[in-house]
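Give me structure tokens for this 252-residue protein.
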Amino acid sequence: MVRRRAARGVVSPDSSPEICCLGRARGTRGFVVDIFDEVEEDLRAERAQALLKRYGGLLIALAVLTIGVAAGWQAWNWWQAKRDLAAGTAFLAAMTTAQAVGPASDVASRKAAIAAFEQVAATAPDGYRTLARLRAAALEADAGDLAGAAALYDQVAGDSSADKLIRDLASLLWAQRQLDTADPARLEARLKLLAEPDNAWRALASEDLALLDLRQGHTDAAKVTLRRLAGDLSLPQDLRGRASLLLSRLGG
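Here you go.
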């Protein structure tokens, strides 16, 4: 009877002493394990409290700093969006004023348009500032103030915050507006930089160099440049057409 119950894992009062001792040992072992678990939990809690006392202020400061940085970033984005919107509105208003200026417009209308663009250039961020200077320069040149236009083109060409493509365009316009009047050496120096093979404005700069050669009486040099432009199939058709027409007038 005892053997059957022992086999089934049931311990009865009349079980053998060995079985009873085994059950007590297991119970004692479980009790000891529970005590160790409680001690370990207490130690963890004490360590956590000690770390919190030691670094709690720093953690709070880091949390506040993180929140402050996030709030500052949002405020900065909001301010930038507001500034860009104001600059865009002012630029469109200046464009509207400029569109009303025609060949027969009075001086006051032209000056008002120039002043509107100059105001945008003085207060707007980089992109709008560059565009406003270019438009003001064009208006100055159309009004006959080549010196004023050249000064504005030079500002754009020397503005490191502007894209290189725009800076080179300003240099090209600076030369084109003064091709018949400015010092040939200065014009040639700037145009040759723009005529480099890797420059986006190389074809137009080369065309202007040919015209500058003609101004100085260097007809043969102008013909060489014009032949190269006329035969370059990678260039736009209208530019090749202009080169071919001018070359034919020069006798090929």
